[in-house]
Amino acid sequence: MAIILFETGVKDVALEVYHLNTLGDEDKYNDFLKLLPPHPLYKKEILLFGKSPNEELKYFVFIYQNTVVALMPFFLRKVIINEIDTGFMDVSSPYGYSGPLYAENTREEVVQKFWKKIDKWYNNNNIVSEFIRFNMQHNWKGYNGEVNATLSNVCGSIITEKEQWKNFKPKVRNNIRKSQEYNLTSSIYHKNITADVIKQFHAIYVHTMRRNKAAPHFFYELDYFINLINTNSDICALILIYKENKAISAELLLLSDNTVHSFLGGTEADFFHTRPNDFLKYEVLNWARKNGFVHYFLGGGREDGDSLYHYKKEFFPKDKDRIFYTGRKIVDKDIYDTLVAHNPFCTGCTVSNYFPKYNCRRPC
Q1: What's the distance, CA 209 to chain centroid?
Q2: What domains can be seen in the chain, in order of their start residue?
Q3: Mean pLDDT, range 30-40, rounded to an integer
Q4: How many CB atoms lie within 10 A of CB 105?
């Protein structure tokens, strides 16, 4: 439920923009966040994941009839082409599932006012385009740009252990049996997670990022994860899979009222043959069931329908997918087209869904 913050007549309709850099900024952000429905992916430490050096974290607060009804974090980015700062900016959502966080029962006409206010701010601040990664709570509805169904996401119901096992694809059941033959064990940590446990997770995560040749801004020091987990101890859990006394697979889980979200993880390549990933998800399901959770959200692939998606789907073949939507908006078409024309990588580009196109870093 949204809370009235202002005396009558002080702020009937307003869009406010804030930085999210200092501790003082964070305190203000958290105060606003408390006024809206809880959501683990809107925590500041999680918003920073995947932030590149060219991105500045900010957020909008929309006030309607003296009440905070929406909050939207975003990255403000300089548009740089051929290593030259063009003087223009664009807006992109943080990594994962984001977009506006609305107060409960926010009416459609209020949503429309929110987006119109944002457009006005864009026009006054040299913003060329906007890319939104919407969350799974249908906050794409009412968006005044182009909405795209982008990825199918796997989210399964947590049911009885017997029925859950029966619903797995045969390959999953066989892999879990194999992991048990290798005598793998699991430990799930929630609240009061020690630095040593986080260190084990971090080592596996870093090894996995190196193996996958991830971009530099996805590598984080141990202190980042210690701060993330300790600051948000209620909504963070870690699962480690062990072969004897060695941690070989790990995942950071984010917890909402009834859902366990798979967030970040990794596996040591030398132990792929023991099938720790399947065992990890099986153990998360058992823990979640005992702790009253209703859904296990695995997410999607890197591209729609790829091998990663199909791997996740094998755990919940009977559950309906949830669709991840993205929003795209060209604020200034003339400037947008000029920027595209000045980027040599855009010449002859045939990838129609890349956005914003002027941001191409290699031939497409």
Answers
A1: 17
A2: 13-144 (3.40.630), 153-323 (3.40.630.30)
A3: 95
A4: 9
